[in-house]
Amino acid sequence: MFNNDLLRDLAEEKVALFLGAGVSASAAIDGNPAFKGWPDFLSSAATSRSKDLREQVVALIAAKDYLLACQLLQDDYDDEWQDLVTAEYGKAAEPSELHRSLISLNQRLVITTNFDKLIEAAWSKYTKAGDRSFKVLSVVDGNVFRVLKDHETPYLIKIHGSVDNAAGLVFSRSEYIRMAFGNESYSTFLDSILLNYTILFVGFSMDDPAISSLMEMYALRYSNARPHYIITPLGGPDNIREINKRLRKLSVIQYDSSNNHAKLPELIKDLAREANEKRREIIASKLASLT
Questions:
Q1: Rounded-to-5 percentages of helix, strand, coil across the chain
Q2: What pLDDT digit, counting tens, does each position of 191-208 carry?
Q3: How far is CA 118 from the centre of its chain?
Q4: Which of 43, 130, 186, 255 has the highest local Cβ count within 10 Å?
């Protein structure tokens, strides 16, 4: 079912999991989504603002220009903005079955644009006693490159910051430009990951202009390189899949998203099982070569 190269890379811990907002959206509190997505959060934040600003924000949300909508609200809220963000995304929530299935892939590098604490909670909860503990990096600077050499430690890299440091969150247009286009370590680090690991995108839409641009530059420079992978719902425009394949070197793995994406964790579990089988094959082959 899955590409053999992807299975081998998973078996050898050469896959970097790149987790987007769709992964956080799978968590719940009392049967309801744990956190608001960007459109809902911005709409809610706009309700107490002036009529003109509310109308601006609604129009920008409709156009999916969340960064500019966020910038307008952040400027209007001023010092109260960080408290608003922390109140929403700092809530304690139970990791979902999707989080559990992702941890079961047993990869050393997890990268995310999410700034909630769900991945940390899942990693702690579902890691077996005695296994390697993980480290969290929530600032993309020169220190982030240690993950390329420190093969003994799993890392969570939160490239847009973490809610426990609200001042460093990338959550508006100015902050995004500063991080994505004004921070050389950001693009250099992600380019290094593209070259040295296979990336598996989960819960990520490719709407992020910096990430999609890096993928397109990678495909242009290294036209013969192996692809990376993105898991997406079944359906969608054929031309978008073609763009992902041709311009971004992204191989698409599709799943049935009915019943609130219930089949996505099952797909990830199947992927983990097949990767474990591949790992056993590799070990058996190496032992056979020694006899």
A1: 55, 15, 30
A2: 999 999 999 999 998 878
A3: 12
A4: 186
